[in-house]
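Recall the central idea of this unit: under ordinary conditions, the amino acid sequence of a chain determines the structure it adopts. In this exercise we apply that idea directly, starting from the sequence alone.
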Amino acid sequence: MSPEAKQIIVTGAAGFIGSHLVNRLYKLGLDFVGLDSFRPAQKLSLVEYRQDWIKKTTGIDIKRLNLCSSEDILKLEEIMSGKENTIFHLAAFPGVRESSIRSSEYFLNNIVGTSNLFRLSTKFKNTKVFFASSSSVYGEISQKTAMIESDAKIENLRSFYAQTKFQNEQDAITLSSLGDTKFTAMRFFTAYGPYGRTDMAYWTFAERLLNGLPLSVYGNDGGSRSYTFIDDVIDILVGLYKIEQKSNFEIYNIGNPKSHSALKMIENLASTLGVKEYTVLHVDRPREDVTKTHCDSKKIFNTIGHKEFTDLSNGMGLFADWFKKYYDEIQKSFR
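Accordingly, the structure predicted from this sequence is:
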């Protein structure tokens, strides 16, 4: 019997990270299928806009598929049949504060949809599932050092979004012990860049800077984050795909080991956007929002090799250049 053909499946392919991943896979000449429900969590979403971008750059259409639908799960089973599958599961509702307002929708999309995918994957041999987790699973931990993978504790979680991601990890741990499907949790740290998420702070700040509006910053400096440029995220995902994973379950931090304050990020954005003066308003931090994230990247470096991350000034500069060029076009896509 001939060996099964290898296939990469990307869920959430019209999302921020997913769209960049499928474009990279295309450039590498790898066989992939992009899937997306096209049901965004935010009103002002770029899913259709990213779909057009993918179509222009690859000539490939993203297939419409909802992981919460039993009918669509059967369609996915057909797609996977007869292939050796690697799945990058990036489909989910993102956003810490929004998850508290629309918890039932987050439960359905993040937990039920992911569970459906996980259980389907165990039906096939030689399947690998890389799934999106989040730095939010670390919650508000008080420490001076960077966050290592073992720091996540359920008692530290601050949002329902974080709970959904932690539950995904626990689900994968259970299933990995019952079969030969290999699961990898990817804890992303504040990914940013062109075609990004409109609900993220860097996007909101860029828009308000261009329109001369004041910027609301939590506390004294807005807190700090391991801002991670999207190209660096994709480099790591491709690196993980290329290695041979020995264990059936792994967790990796995927983020820049350097952490910066929101004020520093705003300073870099304003410089590239050509805004010399702006007003900062200091407001109270929402309960769900953590003060800081700081990524420890030693484990991922030990696995795929060391890499240099894009400096914040360069990364925000690349985003701001793209944002200025496409701002009017993006605004039209929301109408």
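Residues 5-333 form a domain with the Rossmann fold fold (CATH 3.40.50.720).
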